[in-house]
């Protein structure tokens, strides 16, 4: 997976990071490595089944885009990582201000595509980082080597999430099949539209038959290459006909 421009704008040299990071096999894919095989957590994530959750909330974010809920590392059997995160020493406060200071471009993108329903985006990002971002073991400080700078792993996490949103654009996938907000559609038609466009099977979540989230499941190859996890795809909590409301 390509690193998004926001990371280079922040000043991270990808070549330098790789030079200082532990030497990792190029073909290890999370959740396919035998449990008795010693694995460097910097090379293959401990929580190797990752959920990328996108939201469809009325009056939130652009009208032609799903917004981000989060990127959530889970165990390979589908069970959740610790509910209070994985590293309290890296539970940063005032995440919004930190992102703004480190990378104004990324901050602007997050304010557009990663918005809170209650208007406090910074608190939302803080929660997502503390609970989920700290569980991405391939972004632990030691994985960057001696040139690690404070908050570098957090900035890489947010940058990766923004790239996934761009790469897995659910709104565009649906609209390319003529599925637009303001009507109800067969659930299977919506699944097939996403599958055809993005080569991944979505998990739809509804409230009272109304679409509110789409989850995409991934395994991770190496440190940061996200690969669709077909094993956990295609299920849904929505009825056979889904209401897709306008924003």
Describe the global form: globular
Largest sheet: 5 strands, antiparallel
> What is the number of E strands?
7
CATH architecture: Alpha-Beta Complex
Q: SSE order in H/E notation?
A: HHEEHHHHHEHEEEE
CATH class reads: Alpha Beta
InterPro entries: Ribonuclease_T2_eukaryotic, RNase_T2-like, RNase_T2-like_sf, RNase_T2_His_AS_1, RNase_T2_His_AS_2
Pfam families: Ribonuclease_T2
Organism: Basidiobolus meristosporus CBS 931.73
Active site: 69, 128, 132
Key features of this structure:
single chain; 247 residues; alpha+beta; Ribonuclease Rh, Chain A; 5-stranded antiparallel beta sheet; two-stranded antiparallel sheet; 8 helices; 7 strands; disordered N terminus
Brief account:
One of its GO terms (molecular function) is ribonuclease T2 activity. This protein is α+β, with helices and mostly antiparallel strands and 247 residues long.
Task: Explain the overall architecture.
With about 250 residues, this protein is of the alpha+beta class. It has one domain: Ribonuclease Rh, Chain A, CATH 3.90.730.10. The chain is about 30% helix and about 20% strand. Strands 1, 2, 4, 5 and 6 form a 5-stranded antiparallel sheet that branches. A two-stranded antiparallel ribbon has the order 3-7. The chain is globular and about 55 Å long. Belongs to the RNase T2 family. Its EC number is 4.6.1.19. GO terms for molecular function: ribonuclease T2 activity; RNA binding.
């Amino acid at each position: 997976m390509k690193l998004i421009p926001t990371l280079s704008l922040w000043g991270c040299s990808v070549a330098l990071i790789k030079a200082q990071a532990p030497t990792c096999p190029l073909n290890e894919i999370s959740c396919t490595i035998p449990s008795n095989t010693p694995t460097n957590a910097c090379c293959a994530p401990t929580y190797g089944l990752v959920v990328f959750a996108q939201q469809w909330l009325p009056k939130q974010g652009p009208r032609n885009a799903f917004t981000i809920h989060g990127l959530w590392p889970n165990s390979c059997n589908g069970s959740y990582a610790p509910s209070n995160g994985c590293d309290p020493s890296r539970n940063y406060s005032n995440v919004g201000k930190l992102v703004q200071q480190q990378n104004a471009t990324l901050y602007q993108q997050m304010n557009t595509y990663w918005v809170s329903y209650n208007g406090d985006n910074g608190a939302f990002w803080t929660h997502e980082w503390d609970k989920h971002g700290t569980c991405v073991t391939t972004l632990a400080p030691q994985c960057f080597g001696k040139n690690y700078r404070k908050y570098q792993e957090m900035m890489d996490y947010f940058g990766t999430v923004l790239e996934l949103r761009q790469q897995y654009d659910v709104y565009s996938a649906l609209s390319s099949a003529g599925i637009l907000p303001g009507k109800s559609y067969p659930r299977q038609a919506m699944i097939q539209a996403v599958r055809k466009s993005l080569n991944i099977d979505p998990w739809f979540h509804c409230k009272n038959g109304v679409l509110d989230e789409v989850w995409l499941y991934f395994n991770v190859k190496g440190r940061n290459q996200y690969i669709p996890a077909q094993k956990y795809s295609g299920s849904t909590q929505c009825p056979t006909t889904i209401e897709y409301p306008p924003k």
